[in-house]
Write a structure and sequence with these properties.
It is a single chain. This protein is α+β, with helices and mostly antiparallel strands. It is built from six helices and 25 strands. The chain is elongated.
Length: 400
């Protein structure tokens, strides 16, 4: 009611001044008639505070007013008009009216109006942009554990952003591309990015990271999940001797890779049990054969399994007689043969190259006698030879 009375009094006084020609009022109107309020657009994060400032360079005691996008008066001068505890006065004078909107929300975004109550009323607009801060990303789609060979889809989701946040995927430290979808949730946006792939055993213990980037964030939000993959065992046999000989001891190890880890390893020889348990000692994945002899020759097999399957590996053992080991040394003969071939080829190349150089050098040295070869008789040959000899110095100039 008080605000309505003030507006009516202002209009009546302005009307009376125009009717009765009061000089003082006319001069004041002229002082504010040519200017407009000065404002600036404002950008604020959701949940923060936004200051809206309106200024005039010259004012003849004319009031300033702020209105919201719904054209509701917020402040008229230093008088608060709207009951909103979030809105407060920062500064009020004849040249400036600054208000603060605390805990801004996306609903506060829009065009605000500053009015200068001259005749006529002058207005200027200022746009308040509110940035929606995205929530931290969440990754769904993980199966615990994943099985080798199956296809899975990982989905990263963030809500509440405005404008839309950007999502990026990383496999360990390498960026991979996902498929992004943006949907509206009121005035904010929900962003989802999906990553589909077929699980391999190489994906076991790989970290998949989803990163959220947005203009409202000083540092990106990051969420990481580590993928566990179950796969069947893979076996490999390693051996301690390159050339096993009688009397030595040999250690075979069955190296298994699988998830879950294979529970136990079973050793066999030539499709049956180990024949000599006193010399053939099994300790976990290791088989040690003490005091090798010819009867140990054969194919040794290790086998292991987990809940996803069974795997095996084989090693063929041949025990050499240390007294006749020289007869089984094809490696040395092979190396000697290779060296001999290399030396022979090198010598051949040197001989061919020497003959080639000697042949071309001889052609140059006997070139001066070319005239004598074509002469019809001995006298002409001598004359041609002497002529070639006279030009010898000229020929030398070309080869200095």
């Amino acid at each position: 009611m008080m605000m309505l009375q003030r507006h009516l009094l202002f209009l009546l006084s302005s009307l009376g001044a125009s009717i009765f020609g009061v000089e003082g009022t006319k001069s004041k109107a002229r002082g504010g008639q040519g200017q407009f309020p000065i404002t600036q657009n404002v950008t604020a994060l959701e949940g923060s505070a936004a200051n809206m400032t309106c200024r005039v360079d010259f004012n003849d005691n004319t009031s300033l007013q702020w209105s919201n996008p719904a054209q509701q008066t917020l402040f008229f001068g230093d008088k608060k008009a709207l009951r909103d505890n979030r809105i407060e006065l920062v500064r009020a004078s004849w040249q400036e009216l600054t208000i603060r909107i605390n805990d801004v929300s996306l609903a506060d975004e829009g065009q605000y109006t500053c009015s200068l109550f001259t005749m006529p009323v002058k207005t200027t607009k200022a746009f308040l942009t509110v940035l929606g801060v995205p929530e931290r990303p969440k990754i769904t789609g993980f199966t615990s554990p994943a099985l080798e060979g199956e296809s899975i889809t990982l989905t990263c989701t963030t809500t509440g952003s405005k404008p839309a946040a950007q999502l990026r995927w990383f496999r360990n430290d390498k960026e991979v591309q996902g498929t992004t979808e943006v949907t509206a949730s009121g005035k904010s946006l929900t962003v989802r990015s999906s990553l589909r792939f077929q699980v391999e055993r190489g994906d076991d213990l790989v970290a998949y990271t989803c990163m959220v980037e947005h203009v409202s964030l000083a540092n990106p939000y990051v969420t990481t999940e580590v993928l566990e993959v179950y796969y069947a065992p893979h076996l490999e046999i390693t051996h301690s001797l390159i050339i096993p000989q009688e009397g030595q001891y040999l250690k075979l190890e069955c190296v298994s890779r699988g998830n879950p880890r294979p529970e136990s390893v079973v050793w066999s020889k030539d499709g049956g049990d180990l024949p000599d348990v006193e010399r053939m000692i099994v300790e976990g994945p290791e088989l040690t054969i003490t005091t090798l002899n010819k009867t140990d020759n054969g194919t040794y097999r290790c086998e292991a399994s987990n809940q996803l399957g069974t795997s095996s590996a084989e090693y063929k053992l041949f025990v050499y007689d240390p007294n006749a080991i020289g007869q089984h040394g094809p490696d040395h003969a092979l190396i000697g043969g290779v060296v001999a071939v290399v030396v022979f080829i090198t010598l051949c190349l040197i001989i061919v190259l020497g003959r080639y150089l000697a042949r071309h050098k001889g052609t140059y040295l006997t070139h001066e006698a070319k005239g004598s070869e074509d002469a019809p008789d001995a006298d002409t040959a001598i004359i041609n030879a002497e002529g070639n000899h006279m030009h010898a110095e000229e020929k030398k100039e070309y080869f200095i």
